[in-house]
Design brief:
The protein is of the alpha/beta class. 43% of the residues lie in helices and 17% in strands. The radius of gyration is 18 Å and the shape is globular.
């Protein structure tokens, strides 16, 4: 079994147990359930924003522990103050050290769209995402059929949630449906966890021009952003590059400042 296979196998058992212990009716009673979601898509397209989706994650299967001391509320506030367009929060516990409470804590701060990043394999998780205050969910094409993507997207939209569809290969890109709000192209192969940065650019050219495209994984230099923008990307999901530092929010701030300074200089020369 690949790393991804193992994660999904465990996730199916985990979700089944959770659904049996916490019924959907209880999820629907959450105070967040009636709240309007903040549009991640709109935030990414704002001209005065960086396009960066700054991620909060404590660990990963490929890197192990990344940051055990960062506090989610402080980090998220710092990300948004730095100019991040949105926040991504890992809620998978076994592989990434995340938890639903991280989204709840971040949402209570009241500003900035939150992507609940997990391995969605059930409608239950989509309802759960709404109940904890998420504004958008992640669907990974590698682990879902096209029919499941249609079904899950429809439910998410009915709840007011946006959908980020993540792809890595041409085969996965074939599962794209027009209803999808955002397409994330992962530079990291979720089976081997190897990174191929050029992967985003190759696949982006195959998407409809109007698609809001997000580059994911392997972005460590602000000049990567400059290059990706030339290929039509409007979003850039960055986690490890910020989280591996002692102050993720400050790292995010410096990264965004470098982009702005570079673009201002380039603009003066044009």
């Amino acid at each position: 079994m690949t790393i991804l296979d193992k994660i999904i196998s465990y996730k199916r058992e985990e979700v089944e147990k959770l659904a049996n212990s916490v019924p959907i009716k209880l999820l629907e009673e959450s105070s967040f359930f009636q709240m309007d979601c903040i549009s991640l898509k709109q935030q990414l397209q704002r001209k005065n924003k960086s396009g960066i989706i700054a991620e909060f994650k404590r660990q990963s299967p490929s890197k192990g522990i990344i940051n055990e001391t960062a506090i989610v509320t402080e980090t998220v506030k710092g990300y948004l103050d730095a100019g991040a367009s949105g926040i991504s929060i890992l809620t998978d516990t076994k592989s990434f050290g995340g938890k639903n409470e991280d989204v709840i804590s971040a949402k209570k701060m009241g500003f900035g769209p939150i992507l609940r990043k997990d391995f969605t394999i059930s409608e239950y998780q989509i309802i759960e995402a709404k109940s904890i205050g998420a504004d958008a969910i992640l669907l990974i094409a590698a682990v879902l059929s096209k029919n499941e993507i249609k079904q899950f997207t429809s439910l998410a939209h009915n709840l007011g949630l946006e959908v980020l569809l993540e792809v890595h290969t041409q085969e996965e890109l074939d599962k794209y449906i027009p209803e999808i709000n955002l397409v994330g192209i992962n530079n990291r192969d979720l089976n081997t966890f190897k990174v191929d940065f050029d992967n985003s650019i190759r696949l982006a050219e195959l998407l409809p021009a109007e698609t809001v495209k997000i580059a994911e994984s392997g972005i460590s230099d602000f000049k990567n952003i400059i290059e990706l923008k030339k290929h039509g990307f409007e979003g850039f999901l960055i986690g490890e590059n910020f989280m591996k530092t002692s102050n993720p929010a400050q790292a995010c701030k410096k990264f965004i400042e470098n982009i702005s300074q570079f673009e201002n200089v380039q603009g003066n020369y044009n």
